[in-house]
Amino acid sequence: xxxxxxxxxxxxxxxxxxxxxxxxxxxxxxxxxxxxxxxxxxxxxxxxxxxxxxxxxxxxxxxxxxxxxxxxxxxxxxxxxxxxxxxxxxxxxxxxxxxxxxxxxxxxxxxxxxxxxxxxxxxxxxxxxxxxxxxxxxxxxxxxxxxxxxxxxxxxxxxxxxxxxxxxxxxxxxxxxxxxxxxxxxxxxxxxxxxxxxxxxxxxxxxxxxxxxxxxxxxxxxxxxxxxxxxxxx
Amino acid sequence: xxxxxxxxxxxxxxxxxxxxxxxxxxxxxxxxxxxxxxxxxxxxxxxxxxxxxxxxxxxxxxxxxxxxxxxxxxxxxxxxxxxxxxxxxxxxxxxxxxxxxxxxxxxxxxxxxxxxxxxxxxxxxxxxxxxxxxxxxxxxxxxxxxxxxxxxxxxxxxxxxxxxxxxxxxxxxxxxxxxxxxxxxxxxxxxxxxxxxxxxxxxxxxxxxxxxxxxxxxxxxxxxxxxxxxxxxx
DNA sequence: TGTACATCAGTGAACGCGCGTTCACTGATGTAC
DNA sequence: TGTACATCAGTGAACGCGCGTTCACTGATGTAC
Lengths: 234, 234
Hints:
2 copies of one chain form a homodimer.
Chain A: H1 4-27, H2 34-41, H3 55-79, H4 86-103, H5 105-112, H6 123-130, H7 132-146, H8 165-177, H9 184-205, H10 210-232
Helix pairs in contact in A: 1-2, 1-5, 3-4, 3-6, 4-5, 4-7, 4-9, 4-10, 7-9, 8-9, 9-10
Chain A binds a DNA duplex through residues 3-5, 8-9, 12, 33-36, 43-47, 49-51, 54-55.
């Protein structure tokens, strides 16, 4: 049974998160202020502490919510593609990530930009939602490989270079931690794809090519995703 | 003729920049504080204004200095490699960038992380030093191409996909702005390499794969650069 | 070489602002008998 | 159904802190005659 009080509390908490996101969007994560949220909420500054233990606490909640929201958008986009269209699944996730990032640039900055000064994310809370998208991308690669529909074009997976025994150990530990043993070559390929995709999106969102490069980068995003897909071997 | 006063002034300005970098390293760019610099300098807070017009001014100076320092490190690394070893030149720049970023993570964050809240970089000042490294990487690609030693493996340059007329216009405008007309396919390839390299380095510096992924990412950096070089076609 | 004047680094006080967090409190909403 | 008590949202004042920036000033260093 949900009491009116509980409903009111839930509504207020949702409003706090919404106002916090608005602040992050407008001024960036480092500028997030509990007092400002209280002001926007029309409430005295100390009242916030009925809902949030501390500023760090709220940042953690935003991080978790942000990662989850992004993952949901990616999942939805992937679900709209046939399961055996591996390349398209992978591309759909990339495009969904980019669309989400462009819609909420500061949120993207919070998740994948530099660290927020003075704040240290508690990994045990942020890590599971933080790796969801990465795991979906990895699944597309693994399933394509299992179906014999993957021909990597670069790196050790393509036989061009080789992983050292030391690298093999570290790489296979990553997948083993998650219960699915995978070739080191394939893990390296997956990480390459992931970091490249992050780079493409961050470059656009953070305008890292300067004002003259910006329009081209926007037009180019899709070509870049396709090129990375080529490299991965879809 | 350099007067003692001028020398003292120069020394103080250098010390201010050094203290500012120390602050950025320790607390991140958004936390940069003129008062704290004055304190560290052993001087009253208002005295800073004899040397720096405002906080934004100092941030701009740091940005310019950071980009320049990074570019110098990259240039030095490239110069140690024979001019016709295109792939090695390109890799040397990547490795120098990564080494610089690991040595000064917060500086990397200032240059290539999200924006500093409330600060807008004046593009006409930061753009020239900001594009130096990118242009060196581009030069390696162009020279390899001119020497007939480039076989791109992905994207339009490899003939796998195609650029639309609209994309071609935007892409060729970028290189034309710099006086060297280049094929749209090659510009796209260069930007892909650039964004992928930024992604690889930022992923490691910002620890975007979580604590379990970190050691592998470090071991993997070089493989990733090699793989990107493969994709570009060196 | 000595003196009058200009330049400039640094002082100290102040303005007005915002921040996170604590604490004792009021008063309304819920719960148990 | 009515009353006593517990829960809890929100208040208001305060603590102690840091920030960027301005302003009139002192006193040492440099420059021109």
